[in-house]
Design a protein that fits this description.
31% of the residues lie in helices and 27% in strands. By secondary structure, the chain is an alpha+beta fold. A hairpin with a 7-residue loop joins strand 1 and strand 2 (59-68). It is globular.
Length: 183
């Protein structure tokens, strides 16, 4: 059911994403801030935060990294600017494990306790700030690959795309690397 809803959202909004992205970038160039996005950035109050709102895609995104020996863990938040959806998750990158030396683990919590917030706190805050927005689980977005066409800004792949790539941005994942999706 959710996949059909996402397919419908993709069809409905994909023709507006180019002009929306252009408008977003022009506002950034002009130095005009987005009040809701600024409120989200202040929620994290973190000097290590990377604000990816400048990326040429129809969404705002942020990343908070933490480095742990032999792996990296980060928190990611993506808010679509047109379709009323968002997602957030923790991503661990373990080096030297899989055939191409990388394993990505995407999950809803961080066992390392390096973050000052939980996923549920972030979801609640985003829903308060972006009224009417719906949270999409990372599991739905990364567990299956689909072929609805080619997502904006990507190259054709023979094995399909993560649903995530249709709404947010290309996910940097090299074929042969290992992807583990946990709750």
């Amino acid at each position: 059911m959710e996949i059909e809803m996402l397919k419908k959202l993709n069809e409905e909004f994909k023709n507006r994403w180019g002009p929306l992205t252009e408008k977003k970038i022009n506002l950034i160039i002009e130095g005009i801030k987005t009040p809701k996005w600024d409120k989200i950035l202040k929620f994290f109050n973190n000097n290590d935060l990377f604000d990816y709102s400048y990326i040429q895609s129809p969404n705002h995104a942020l990343f908070i990294p933490k480095v742990i020996p032999n792996k990296e863990i980060g928190f990611y938040l993506y808010i679509h600017l047109e379709a009323p959806i968002f997602t957030c998750f923790f991503k661990k990158i373990h080096f030297g494990i899989s055939p191409k030396n990388t394993r990505y683990t995407i999950c809803s919590s961080s066992s390392e306790r390096k973050f000052d917030f939980t996923l549920m706190e972030v979801i609640h805050y985003v829903k308060e700030t972006y009224l009417g927005y719906r949270y999409l689980s990372h599991k739905l977005l990364f567990e299956n690959k689909v072929d609805w066409g080619v997502p904006i800004g990507t190259n054709e792949k023979k094995d399909g795309y993560f649903i995530f790539e249709y709404f947010f941005e290309a996910f940097h994942f090299t074929e042969g690397d290992e992807m583990v999706v946990l709750e």
